[in-house]
Amino acid sequence: MKNKIIAGNWKMNKTRAEAAALIEELIPLVSNTSNTVIICVPFTDLELAIRLTEGSNVHVGAQNCHWKESGAYTGEIAPSMLKEMGVEYVVIGHSERRTYFGETDATVLARTKAALNAGLKPIVCIGETLSERKEGEMEAVLTRQVVEGFKDVTAEELTNIIVAYEPVWAIGTGVTATDEQANDAIKYVRSVFARKYGKVAADALYIQYGGSMNDGNAKGLLSMSDVDGGLIGGASLVAAKFAAIVHAHE
Ligand code: PEP
Questions:
Q1: What is the 3-state secondary structure (H, E, C) of 33-73?
Q2: Mutational pocket test of ligand 1: of 123, 208, 213, the residue with most ligand atoms within 8 Å of the beta carbon
Q3: Lower CB density within 10 Å: C or N end of the chain?
Q4: How far, in Å, CA of 12 to CA of 85, rounded?
């Protein structure tokens, strides 16, 4: 059985002082887990997070990176800059970036390829909106996001990628997908990957669920056959809650 990969997405939260307090509280709470623990922090907290987590089992990720290595892209961060700092993971294509910052399947693909080329492990987010689900378009949307968003990704590269299935209607809303809804959607996503990469590669691929996962519902979600972990927003900002999710299924 796979272990679970539990990643916190802090979004635009935590000053350096607040980040230090949270990380110092979190480390001892998760030190004995068999699951993989990742915190994806704001750029301004990365250096601190890498320093404080050194020697612990907490891995550090960023929340975005650009697709170019350098150049006139004001406000952007290159994957190699993150890699040089010691960052291991990077969230790509989060629905908030797709909604507010014009992220498309094409930019998700470009960022993913650049991150891989720099030696980072992308956590690539996909998921349907409420209206898409209601209109029966969930499978078509997920298929498009996988087919277009992974168009140039090789089978070898796929082994360094984590996928996060995050139904947009469940993110930050307090409305969680049921255990079955999460598992069914992830099973479907896995079948789309299997079409391109084969069943062995698709089964090996880690696909997380994200969307209002918390210390109360994590056990049920993480016990489902196809749910390989969680990408957690709000609940990752409180050490005890995040640690409870990390330990919910071991
Ligand atoms: C997220 O930011 O990826 C997320 C799932 O947020 P929340 O857990 O707050 O719904």
A1: CCCEEEEECCHHHHHHHHHHHCCCCEEEEECCCCCCCCCCC
A2: 213
A3: N
A4: 20
CA of 130 to the centre of ligand 1 (A): 15
Catalytic residues: 94, 166
Structurally, the chain folds into a number of domains equal to 1
Domain that holds residue 202: 5-246
Which amino acid, one-letter code, is at 64? N
CATH number for the domain harbouring residue 189: 3.20.20.70
Single-letter amino acid code for the residue at 110: A
- Please tell me the distance from the alpha carbon of residue 244 to that of residue 215, in angstroms, as a whole number: 6
